Task: structure prediction
Amino acid sequence: MALYVQKFGGTSVGSVERIGLVADKIKSFRDQGHDVVVVVSAMSGETNRLLSLAADITKTPSPRELDVLVSTGEQVTIALLAMALHERGCEAKSFTGDQIRILTDSAHTKARIKEIDVDAVQQELKAGRVVVVAGFQGVDEKGNTTTLGRGGSDTSAVAMAAALSADECQIYTDVDGVYTTDPRVVEKARRLERITFEEMLEMASLGSKVLQIRSVEFAGKYKVPLRVLSSFVEGDGTLITFEGDSKMEQPIISGIAFNRDEAKLTLVGVPDIPGAASRILGPVSAANIEVDMIVQNVAEDNTTDFTFTVHRNDYHRVMQVLQSVAEDLGAEAVRGDNAIAKVSIVGVGMRSHAGVASKMFDALAAENINILMISTSEIKVSVVIEEKYLELAVRALHTAFELDV
Ligand code: ASP
Ligand code: MG
Result:
């Protein structure tokens, strides 16, 4: 007999029929004798609908009231799911974040969980009930309703699992696991049986949006075994686990992540003086713009070129910032390109293997794809290329690293 925390996302509870299917699934776990705590999202589209109501009233809604508003979405689902369980003869009770006391800080719309009181939950489980918890929401010290940021129910589920020392936190969603890459781009993409937390974090931060990144960090930190699986089709999904947990040898590359939302900017002919990089990026970060890759050339004739990438949405703003930086520094010119994309190979196996990067460059060269920038970390090699070659690059790498089914 195990204790499972099961999270069902917005699409999985998107209609009363689907809520019924979720209830069937939960009941089958109960029938096998397992204890189940369920965390649910709002019905799909509901959080957006609530946010747009607020937007129709004001451009600057109070964050506190926004939280009061959007947290209602999850409150609807917990009650409906509890009723659906009752209909199936399965004892169940719903709880809001406040009722459980999922204690958070007071950072409305992006609160962080500090502590969860599990006594009441444990008593309910002991009494043979399924506990249905509203995801995404909590309460601060003063009793204000808070929410955890978009996609926050994943984090609620992981936090519940950590607090309860659950055997597994299962995230049910509309995909049946984590894939080697996006199956919409590569037909031969394959579901991974397992992936390490580190790899998952890289994949997630690079745009494979299966799980909210924060929930993966949380699970890694508190050693919560996490599984991603489909609400609609039977299967084992993907287990997110620790390096070395598996007896099998790690593949060198576990997956290929990519991100289209990138733009790159270059300051040409920057004087090669101490403080230049700080004078370039200082104003960029002051404008609250996140910088991703940074490359500075070897200085020639006492000048250097300084290139970095940002989110494509920030491209025009950064351009403006850089125009004045260029004047200030006496740089020659500002150049930019917002039709680029980033492709990365990710795998803990590359720590113990040489030649991974050159194999990647060979595969791209064979397709005549020009590499514009390169960056590496211990378990990742990323390149920036022209966006029009993105699909071709991902497919070529998928084949080169023997990930095809
Ligand atoms: N309902 C919230 C959202 O749409 C939280 C979640 O679904 O995880 O962002
Ligand atoms: Mg969601």
